[in-house]
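In response to a reviewer's request, we include the raw inputs and outputs for one of the modeled complexes. The two entities were modeled together in a single run.
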Amino acid sequence: MDGLAQLTSNEYLVLAGTLHGIHAITSRLSPMGASSGAQVIEGETFKITILLTATGTKFVLLTSLTDTSADGILQKVYEIYADAVMKNPFHTPEMPIRTEAFDTRITALIGSGLGV
Amino acid sequence: MAYTQPHHPRLSVLSTTSQSSVDHLSPTASSTRFSLPSVPASNKPGAPRPSIYDRNLNKTRVSEVSASAFSFLFSEVVQYTQKRVSGINDLERRLNTLGYRIGTRVLELMVWRAESSSKAPKREIRFLPALMSIHTQVWKAVFGKPADAIEKSVENADEYMIIDNDPPIERHISVPRDMSQLSCSSFTAGIVEAVMDGLGFPARVTAHNTPTAQFPSRTTILIKLEQSVLDREELLK
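The model returned the following structure tokens for the whole complex.
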């Protein structure tokens, strides 16, 4: 992760909004009826992995093309989210996550996941 | 009227009521508001499922509840309470009150179990053994593990502390910075206060965050004894 440019919070909002739109469209593309929507979007140099949970919350991870651990990491992120965010009485649903334990555990996960 | 419902034993307690009200509650009637899970075949038809009150109190001693389910419940308790208070002190006081209601029951249950399991059940009349039993017995009954330490205040003779390095009820709680004074373990403090009161050691019990580098959620339960307790201890010496 070192050396990568950080997105501003506005860029995050744009990315999330665009992705939500793409996801909504892709979930209706299948000729076989309802679909779960896009799960992986690949570009020449990057890969976007999307985890759609049963409640509609999406977790998105941007990785390099060669990365194979994205699915596993997203599952763990979901687990941490359920533990540290949803069980925290001071989190307001639909609002940005300002939970210390979540940040700590995500940093620990991504740090260990990439072997940095 | 001896009306029995063959398919829904859980409702059979209603069998003596008038049929119309049974029909009203029955999921087989037109109402779709109730969706009871289908009853396993092993249950005898007509026998009501044993409720929590029918269970042997001693058998539930080692049974466990879901920590996740409790976390969600406690989170709701804190949110509900927070909406109805004006400040952190008020919030802590209310959590203490809620814990107090648990503590009175925990004490009663522990005394009952001690009586049925030992030939010579003992009642603690000295303060330190009572504190030890809270540190181990109460903590084990409520949290499934003993507390981590007991300390005596150096400055004040009437202050004792029970220390928990990682309180289970706070495991998933992150208190925002602007409320850093708040300790949700006030709930635990209430439990301790009730047990102390019940044992005849009236005290004021509060909870404080005392984090260390190794244990970020380390919590101290501070017990401030009433003078009468100290005087009695002096006499018993």
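As requested, we also summarize the result in words. Residues 9-113 of chain A form a domain with the Beta-Lactamase fold (CATH 3.30.450.70). Chain A has one domain: 9-113.
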